[in-house]
Design goal:
391 residues, alpha/beta, Aspartate Aminotransferase, domain 1, Aspartate Aminotransferase, domain 2, binds pyridoxal-5'-phosphate
Length: 391
Amino acid sequence: MKSILHQTLDRHGTDSVKWDGLERWFRLKSDVLPLWVADIDIRTAPAISEALAARASTGEFGYTLFSQDAQRAVRSWYGRRHDTEVDSNHVLFSNGVVPGLTHIVEALTEVGDGVVIQSPVYPPFHELVTGLQRDVFDAPLIQVADRFEMDFDALEEAMVQAKLFLLCSPHNPVGRVWSEDELKRTLELARRHDVIVVSDEIHADLTFPTQGHVALNRLDSNVITVSAPSKAFNIAGLFASYIICPNDAWRKRIIQVQNKHHVSPTPFANTAIVAAYTDPRAERWLDQLRAELEEQADYLVGRMNEALPQLTCFMPEASYLLWIDFATLGLSPDERKKWLQQDVRIFLSPGLPFGESGQTFERMNFGTRREILDEAIERLVRQIAADKQPQ
Ligand SMILES: Cc1ncc(COP(=O)(O)O)c(C=O)c1O
C-alpha cells in the first residue's frame, strides 16, 4: 500500500476549518501553516469513500434511525480490536463525541454537582461542565521524567467532591496511553467514592503499534464509553459518533436528554460507521496509518530536539498531537500567539485553554505531510535566530 500520510491532499478551498478557517476566522494569510485543529491532511480509507458514494447514489436521504448494522459494527469492532464484549443494544448514536459527553453530564448530574477532569485536557472538557453549571474539580496531571502521569492523591481528593469523572483515554494533549495499572487504580477510586466514569476514547484506535490501549469497559462493565471512527479514519466532519452505556437507567436518562436536543444520525453516519468497523480493507488501512503516525512522531520529536533544544516535547504514545513547552522563550500566551502567527507564521493550538499548566505550551498537529513539518521547524529556527540579532 502507498504511504497514506505522504500523499498530497490540498484542503484549501474545501471549507476546511483547519485550512480555510485561518483566513475566515482569524484573517490570516494563506502562507501561515495550519498545525492546529485535530483532523489530518489525508483522504479517508477508500473503503469508506466507496461506501459513502454508494449510499449517495441511492438518492434516499430522509430522516434516519441509528442503524442496527451500525450498532452491530461497534460491537464487532470492540470484540476484534479491544477484546471487549459490547451489547449492541447498549450503543447509542451521538452527533459528535463532545455532544455525547455534554448530554451524559446533563443527564447524570445536577446543577452544582462536581465533575472531575485532569488538566491539561481538551478544552471542551471544562467548557461543557461549566456551561452546564456543574463545578469542575481538577486533578492535574504531573510531569514525571519524560512523560505525564496521573496524580492519584489529587484524583482522590477531587473524586470525594464529585459525581462524575471525564477521563480522556488516550489523553489529548499529552499523548499518554494509560496503562492497565493506572486505569485499574482510577476505577478503584471511582468505586470507593461512588463516581460515574465516562471515558472519551476518540483517539484509542490511533494508539501506536508499539503501545497497547486498554478499553476501560474491558476492566469495568459499568463505565460509559464515548467514541467514534472520526479520528482514526479522519471523518470528523461526518459527526458519526456513539455512546456505549450498559447501565439501563443511565441510558434511559441519556436518551431523554438526546431527544430534548433532537439528536439523530444522517444516513452517511450509519454508512461510515459500518464501513470503518466492518470492511477489512479499512482495518488494514488504519493499521498502516498507525504505523506511519508513530514513525512521523519519532521523526518529529527527533528533529525538534535536534533543531530546537530550547523547546521541550515528549514522544506521544498515540494519535497526531505533540504537546510542546515554549517556557524558555519567556513569552506570555498573548505574546507567543502574536509571535507564532505574525513572525514565525505557523498556527498551533495555544496551551492555556487546556488548563493553567498549559500556559507555556502549544499543541502541534503533525498529521500532515513531512515537508510541512520540516518547514514549520525551519521557520521556528529562523525566527528564534532572528530574535537574537541585535536590533
Ligand atoms: C479527546 C477528544 N474528544 C473529543 C473530540 C472532538 O470530538 P467531536 O468532534 O466528535 O465532538 C476531540 C477532538 O479533537 C478530542 O481530542
